[in-house]
UniProtKB/TrEMBL annotation:
A single GO molecular function term of this UniProt record: G protein-coupled receptor activity
Listed InterPro entries: GPCR_Rhodpsn, GPCR_Rhodpsn_7TM, Olfact_rcpt, OR51/52/56-like
Function of the molecule: Putative odorant or sperm cell receptor.
Subcellular location, record wording: Cell membrane; Membrane
Superkingdom of the source species: Eukaryota
Organism: Gulo gulo
Name assigned to this protein: Olfactory receptor
Length: 316
């Protein structure tokens, strides 16, 4: 609702916010973020390089892993400009249109990650439940089609949100709660009815995260049923061991996301620091930890990284 003193307009810039209560420690926060970005970029680029260079890794499982690494790079690069500007240069303003673009890419890559994790669970399902047809089901053309489908679906679902936000009138409040632009943050700023935006946003979340997570659970129920039918204990252990990295990636992605969603709805009056930290964990931790998990738990990746660094040492 507009008050008598409010005149609707579209702000030229929006004001970003650092971490509440840590203004004096922004130098240390900037250092932490720089380290996280560095680990994420180096780790995910290393996995992409290995998958491209090593013929032994030209398999469906590693193609999906390279999609995940490429997507994690997209998440990191989407947040990097405003986060470093806020904490390293104390520049707290972002153009309204630039903020909408950043919001579009952050959420699009987030939707894509959910779809990629679902595709990876399908890969594990076929590998364990129907191994004889694995090579014929997951052909290169089908993997490419799945990747393009995930991308197209994410872009189509996300595209209406910034368009609708741009049509709304805004009042004099233009301060965001984070050092990056999120839909849940921007939707609080208009001084008009945002019911349509909220309904559309909720529908998109249910159609992506809700459906994807449900199908991932179903796939693992079927995987577990198949594994329990294996007579050999060693066989059961080996089958489950191929799923550990993916399960860790799923938990690393969905647990913080669910926590952020619950915090926004059930703990609105909690400290702003808590909301900021939870959102930061959701966006920054998976791109950093995913390559570490797969490097530690996946022997071909671990061996490939060892060979890569051994090769570099020989030339030094």
């Amino acid at each position: 609702m507009l008050s008598l003193n409010d005149t609707p307009f579209q702000p030229a810039t929006l004001q970003l916010t650092g971490i509440p209560g840590m203004q004096r420690g922004h130098a240390w926060v900037a250092l932490i973020f720089c380290i996280l970005y560095l680990i994420s970029i180096i780790g995910n680029l290393s996995i992409l390089t290995l998958v491209v260079r090593e013929p032994a890794l030209h398999q469906p499982m590693y193609y999906f892993l390279s999609m995940l690494s490429l997507n994690d790079l997209g998440v990191s690069f989407s947040t990097l400009p405003t986060v470093l500007a806020t904490f390293c240069f104390n520049y707290r303003h972002v153009g309204f249109d630039a903020c909408l673009v950043q919001m579009f890419f952050i959420h699009t890559f987030s939707f894509m990650e959910s779809g990629i994790l679902l595709a990876m669970s399908f890969d594990r399902f076929v590998a364990i439940c129907d191994p004889l047809r694995y090579a014929t089901v997951l052909t290169n053309s089908r993997i490419l089609a799945m990747g393009l489908g995930i991308t197209l679906k994410s872009v189509m679902f996300m595209a209406p949100l910034p368009i609708l936000l741009r049509q709304l009138p805004y009042c004099h409040v233009n301060v965001l709660s984070h050092s990056y632009c999120l839909h849940s943050d921007l939707i609080q700023l208009p001084c008009a009815d945002t019911k349509l935006n909220n309904i559309l946003g909720l529908s998109i979340v249910l159609a992506t995260f809700g459906l994807d997570s449900l199908l991932i659970v179903v796939s693992y129920v079927l995987i577990l049923y198949t594994v329990l039918g294996i007579a050999s204990g060693e066989g059961r252990r080996k089958a489950l061991n191929t799923c550990v990295s993916h399960i860790c990636a799923v938990l690393l992605y969905y647990v913080p996301m669910i926590a952020v969603s619950v915090m926004h709805r059930a703990a609105k009056h909690a400290s702003p620091l808590v909301h900021t930290l939870m959102s930061s964990i959701y966006l920054f931790v998976p791109p950093v930890i995913n390559p570490i998990i797969y490097s530690v738990k996946t022997k071909p990746i671990r061996q490939g990284i060892f060979n890569l660094f051994s090769f570099k040492r020989k030339w030094l």
